[in-house]
Amino acid sequence: MSAVDELTRLAHAARLGDAAALESFVRASYDQVWRFCAALADPAAADDLVQETYARCVPGLRQFRGDAPALTWVLAIARHVCAGELRSRIKTRNTAACWPAEPDWLKAPDASGRVVVADLLARLGPERRAAFVLTQLLGLRYAEAATVCECPEGTIRSRVARARDDLIAMLSASETAPEGRRQAGASRTR
Amino acid sequence: MDCDRAREAISARIDGEDPGLPGNVIEAHLASCAQCRDWQQRAHEVTRRARLGGPFLERDLTAQVLAAVGLVGAGQRAAGQGRSVAQRAGLAVIALAQLAITVPLLVLGHDHGAGTHAAHELGSFDLALAIAFAVGAIRPALSAGLAWPCGVAAAGLVGTAIADLMAGQTFGADEAQHLIAAAGAALLFWQARTIGAGTAGPALATAWPGDLPGSAPTRAAGRAAVLWPETPSAPAGGGSDAAQINSPDVAARGGGKVA
């Protein structure tokens, strides 16, 4: 049985009141949900966001019908939780938390020249980041990612392509001369 | 052809998804466009590096999550238990009261407006109500099924009592006893809805957050479903999307991609 089907089976068992299945369900899905929340918001906030996600999942399991795999269902809830977090950050003018700090390679010429692409993910727009993280890091199909993001599959396809485009542009900026790097970084954070 | 459109197709092909364009069209564009060939290389590289990187979980918080979730469930279960005890006690009292009504009718054959046999028939139905209330007190899970016939009977008794009182056919004191049946039926409905909202599972709480995807109709639907449950549909029956997502080879490909 594939990992996705197993999770759905656990969700159904947990729905009927099986406490052990509920625990297994949380353990099995925790890593994926954490990585998704860490990518959508930031790793420091991920712990709390994941807690909030599961706190909503558990009562919601009663209504879980299994039309979609359990993982996409949990991730959809996580997406709503993270979106709420980002909205509240914007509302409280906590803009420093919305955009991550400039990575070191933008501030000064970096002798080693190694750029961690994962850091760049945080600089993507939220929808492109969600689509990219779901399909590339979590290994979801476009159709499943479309269910999580509640948009058509074609939208996912275009967001993933645009995300790749942005990442390629950021990587090329890191390979240019220091002045070019500073300019690229400055324009990105505005 | 527009390079943006081509790159979207190239990106989809990297993921093994439907590119939306025929393969030969994409190949023809790549053959003629050096920038897109370069883009394809870079897209592969960026994808590989992103998949290797990404935020990782450093420690396992599952235990804390379950503890938090369990506390949520226990707190709401405690609140619910007081209510369910009250419901069952109420039903027990009403069952006894209803039984008391039954005695003169069934055992003694006395009724004001009817002969002995009619009194026996009435008594039988009143006895059925009394037993239904008692069962509701003993086995709350059966409330949903019991609520309907008791509700109809109580409505009939009270409705006809009102009509007949107004027409002067009967006396208030006699008909007041039907309020007992009405109260019992109401308790059964209430108990059924309460049970619909909660479950036997230790960690499954009764609250429902408002902003889950598509959740707005489902809370009321969940409670109503106990009183009017749908027959469960065949699994994997619904829609092409579900079939696509649930098919084992698709899921296996999705699971294998990260590795």
Short description:
The complex is a heterodimer of chains A (190) and B (259). By secondary structure, chain A is mainly alpha-helical. Chain A has eleven helices and no strands.
Topology:
The complex is a heterodimer of chains A (190) and B (259).
Chain A: H1 3-15, H2 19-40, H3 43-60, H4 70-91, H5 95-98, H6 104-107, H7 117-121, H8 126-137, H9 142-149, H10 153-175, H11 178-189
Helix pairs in contact in A: 1-2, 2-3, 2-4, 2-8, 3-4, 4-9, 8-9, 8-10, 9-10, 10-11
Chain B: H1 3-14, H2 23-32, H3 34-52, H4 62-107, H5 116-138, H6 143-166, H7 172-175, H8 178-197, H9 218-227, H10 240-246, H11 248-258
Helix pairs in contact in B: 1-3, 4-5, 4-8, 5-6, 5-8, 6-8, 8-9
Structure description:
The complex is a heterodimer of chains A (190) and B (259). Chain A has 190 residues and is mostly helical. Chain A has 2 domains: 1-98, RNA polymerase sigma factor, region 2, helix turn helix motif (Rna Polymerase Sigma Factor, Chain: A), CATH 1.10.1740; 100-190, Winged helix-like DNA-binding domain superfamily/Winged helix DNA-binding domain (Arc Repressor Mutant, subunit A, Orthogonal Bundle). In chain A, 75% of the residues lie in helices and 0% in strands. Chain A is built from 11 helices and no strands. Chain A has helices spanning 3-15, 19-40, 43-60, 70-91, 95-98, 104-107, 117-121, 126-137, 142-149, 153-175, 178-189. In chain A, helix 2 (19-40) packs across helix 4 (70-91), helix 4 crosses helix 9 and helix 8 packs across helix 10 (153-175). Chain A is globular and about 55 Å long. Chain B is mostly helical and 259 residues long. Among the domains of chain B are: 3-52, no CATH class; 83-197. In chain B, 72% of the residues lie in helices and 0% in strands. In chain B, helix 5 packs antiparallel against helix 6. Classes of the chains: A mainly alpha (190), B mainly alpha (259).
